[in-house]
Write a structure and sequence with these properties.
- By secondary structure, this protein is α/β, with parallel strands linked by helices.
- Helices cover 64% and strands 10% of the residues.
- The strands form 2 sheets. A 6-stranded mixed sheet has the order 6-7-8-3-9-10, sandwiched between helices. Strands 2-1-4-5 form a 4-stranded antiparallel sheet, with helices on one face.
Length: 586
């Protein structure tokens, strides 16, 4: 058993990496308060001994010792709790930081291996459980020392009584440990059911509209019912072993309590011991019951927390396909992006096939084509989310993989179709990039959102609700653009940013793009014909190859595939084509 727990504790220490000073202080204070607690039955027996023979001077001295013992017991217990609180905060912060840093680096396969529900439960419950384990480790070892010292003290008075203590402890711990293993087995299965609960409800929240539209509720109820049945079965199995555990260990305790009383009474009848020894033995037996309960409680918690350790390690040990980066920190002067015979495959499927082009600054370059033709993959390659199969991508002549990781992300920014904003104030959303309020106001003025923000009762301190649902899609997009400008990135990537906007918001965004190209390299993906007309250059893609390259007016005359894209009206593929003559004018 001890060997198993050493393995658990080793895994915990490797993951949590508690501070050495906290670790040492916890062991010290736990040892001290438990040693003073161990003295209490001994001092109490001395009080009875001297009171029985009428030596009240020693009774008063022992009473003073009892007060002294209780005082230091509570003092060191208090200090133990203080250090525990500090370590809990340190561990919780440290693990959450590790998980956050890991989530930033994972690839698209991460959520296939670790579902979102399991991830959320790990971030919340598992991290807190791991923080508690530090206290359980110190309690476990120090309480074991208490139990051993009780054996030593009792053997000093009567070796036969000490043997009874040892036999009781062995039977108690063995039976309790067996049942705890079974309880923990079904507890882990309960956690898996909880993960399924969380994952299902997370998906429901993300797809409420579709669920209502397609009347999916009956099937969801069936899925929920299946999870509930699994959870209930695991809970009842766990409860079965829990009840057996409580009954069996109580039976063992009551049996040995009666046996101990009988032996002590017989020893007193034979004048082998005095009443003070009876009080001392009974006091230590009751203390040992409490200590063994504490050992088992700690061991159960350590075993349960080991489940949490495994779950968090599963997140932290996930390894995305590694991409090597250099340490070049030179600035981008011009912002010329070049693809030189680039090939890229995903799951054995050729996505980008021997592609070469050069994108110049102060231009708006648009990639167009049906879904699955490689547009998003080109953006992902520019963002260095994948490694090329062959070829080279460079900026101003420097291979993009030669740039330092943190430096590169400051030079290139992406704005997505559905920009993400945090559930916090507008200013705090912008603070993630630049905390200077003057810079924030300047960026917001440039994108045309400053007047709207100023008109709000709380201005820049207005709290954006989850997913920014208290502002329009266009306003959220503009705030996202302002945040992007604060990065001072030279190259800006725009992925379908007007696809879900109303005509007025789309018009504002397109006007902004014309302004931004004055000092940026603008690259965008679009399905909308009116946005294609805005571009200085259009690169037409099909099956990972370039099948057209030029301006709208030229392509619409002689590129059949581009003409087909302009007239295609499939909402699922390209968006709805409509007359944009009134929407945007040069």
């Amino acid at each position: 058993m001890i060997k198993e727990y050493f393995h658990f504790i080793k895994d915990y220490l490797k993951l949590a990496k508690p501070r050495k000073d906290y670790f040492a202080l916890m062991f010290l204070f736990t040892f001290l308060y438990k040693m003073f607690l161990l003295l209490i039955p001994f001092v109490a027996s001395l009080i009875i001994k001297y009171a029985t023979i009428g030596d009240f001077d020693k009774v008063y001295l022992c009473l003073f010792m009892l007060v002294f013992t209780y005082f230091f017991y509570h003092l060191f217990l208090f200090l133990n709790h203080k250090v525990y609180g500090k370590n809990m905060h340190y561990c919780y912060t440290n693990l959450n930081t590790k998980i956050l840093n890991q989530l930033i680096t994972v690839d698209e396969n991460f959520t296939k291996k670790i579902p979102k529900g399991k991830l959320l439960n790990s971030i919340n419950a598992d991290v807190i459980d791991i923080g508690d384990m530090f206290d359980m480790v110190t309690e476990f070892f120090m309480t074991l020392i208490q139990v051993i010292l009780i054996f030593v003290i009792i053997s000093f008075y009567n070796i036969f009584l000490a043997i009874i203590f040892i036999v009781y402890a062995y039977l108690y711990v063995t039976s309790r440990n067996y049942y705890d293993r079974k309880v923990n087995e079904y507890y882990e299965k309960q956690k898996q059911s909880n993960d399924q609960y969380s994952n299902l409800f997370s998906q429901i929240l993300n797809g409420l509209q579709e669920i209502k539209t397609f009347h999916m509720l009956p099937k969801l109820h069936k899925r929920l019912d299946k999870i509930q049945k699994e959870y209930s079965k695991n809970y009842m199995d766990k409860r079965k072993y829990y009840v057996k555990r409580e009954n069996d260990v109580r039976f063992i305790t009551h049996t040995f309590s009666i046996l101990l009383y009988v032996i002590l009474v017989l020893l007193m009848i034979k004048n082998k011991i005095g009443v003070e020894v009876l009080v001392l033995v009974i006091g230590y037996f009751e203390s040992m019951i409490a200590y063994l309960d504490k050992v088992i409680e700690c061991s159960s918690t350590i075993r349960e927390v080991n489940v949490s350790v495994k779950r968090v390690n599963e997140i932290l040990n996930y390894r995305s396909k590694q991409i090597g980066f250099g340490n070049d920190t030179s600035k981008i002067d011009e912002g010329v992006l070049t693809f030189d015979h680039v090939c890229f495959s995903l799951k054995d499927k050729k996505i980008v096939d021997d592609m070469s082009f050069q994108i110049k600054p102060n231009h708006i370059t648009a990639f167009v084509g049906q879904s699955g033709t490689g547009k998003t993959s080109i953006f992902n390659l520019i963002l260095r989310l994948y490694q090329l199969d062959s070829g080279k991508i460079s900026i101003d002549g420097t291979n993009i993989y030669d740039y330092d990781l943190s430096h590169y992300v400051s030079m290139i920014s992406v704005v997505n179709q559905k920009p993400f904003v945090f559930n916090m104030s507008i200013r705090k959303n912008l603070d993630f990039v630049d905390k200077d309020i003057n810079h924030q106001i300047e960026a917001c003025k440039r994108v045309g959102i400053h007047d709207f923000i100023s008109s709000l009762p709380d201005g820049y301190h207005t709290i954006l609700r989850e997913d920014g649902n208290n502002i329009s899609g266009g306003q959220k997009q503009l705030i996202s653009l302002a945040r992007t400008l604060l990065t001072n990135s030279k190259i800006l990537l725009f992925d379908e940013i007007t696809s879900s906007l109303d005509p007025e918001s789309a018009k504002q965004i397109m006007s902004l793009l014309k302004d931004l190209k004055k000092d940026h390299t603008i690259i965008m993906i679009t399905h909308k014909p009116e946005v294609m007309k805005l571009a200085d250059r259009i690169i037409v893609l099909h099956d990972g190859k370039i099948v057209g390259d030029g301006k709208h007016n030229d392509l619409i005359k002689n590129n059949e595939y581009y003409i087909w894209l302009q007239t295609r009206k499939s909402v699922s593929k390209l968006g709805v084509f409509f007359d944009d003559s009134k929407l945007f004018k040069d």
